[in-house]
Amino acid sequence: MNRFFWKYLLPLLLLAAGCEKTVVEMSDGGTADLVLNLALDGKPAELALTKASDPELLESEGLRTLRIIVSQGTPGQDGFKIIYNEKFTADNGSSASSPVLQYGTVTIPDVPVGQAGIYCIGNEESLGKFYNNETITAELENSPKLVMVDMDNEYFPQPEAGIRTCGLPISGHRTGVNVREGMGPINIEMRRLAVKLNLTVENATSSTLTLEGVSYGKFSGDRLYVFPTQNLDVPSDINYSDFAFGTAVPGGESIAIKVGPLGSDGSEGIYRAYIYPTYAFRGVTGENPYTVSLNVRNESGTVLTNLQDPRTFGEGHTFFRANTQVNIRARITSETDVSIRFDVMAWDEYGIDVPDFE
Length: 358
Description:
Helices cover about 5% and strands about 40% of the residues. The protein has two helices and 23 strands.
């Protein structure tokens, strides 16, 4: 990662459209410029990253807004305060191919020397948040990992279409930074606080089918840590529920994905969804909650009810970490049967291949 930062060090583009900034005046005790090198998926973090700037990235999976916060002291202890809080936004209008602003490097001037915390939050709107000084101070003092509770699952789970406005939550942080004159850059790797479910439906029958709905088992959590400290770090009081899309939701509209017969160009259909990191199965007692079921209609309009029975896809996995994707392949072999294969990979491994069916 160090080689990446030296190779791709970028100058700060000074102002993004719609920039809001808060700097707290400090008593004169010496200051230093703080240089941050931000990365996402092993690349310089770009504001408003779109499919146009990275063909391998799905629209809305990158940074749309970026808030950078610097604190002095330790949350919950005397002397803790926010000394810098700036939010950058990019006005890319209605076109995803509009010019983007890059933030490989950000320089924060005149940071007081001493211990500091650095907090970067991308797309706070995706969590319904606005982290001004008052809000971020209160929430960090309540939980240094910044727990976010989504009690009624208002913000997640989301289908792919549901993240087009606000994107996905993204974060990175460093605490206990010793700010001093002449210090080198601080490297911060940001990551998405979500798990991507890539469902590929393969039609191995001789007629066209329509995927109208998808339902999953009880593994969608109602809270997460915005600043986790481990690869697998979910709140201990998290609650899990099942979730569904399209006609699998009572009164829901069909997602209407046509899947042609075996051998045709359209014999596969893909449906994506996003959830918080999950540790829903402890693997000791109880049923595996990692299941999927399909609402499918054939050419004559008949709903294939046998495909609505839950099929397990998470064998051997008790959790799914943030910034990973779960690739599920459901092969419909008849109007009464479907076979499931799956694998798990890092978000930046863009392929969604899974083991072939035998």
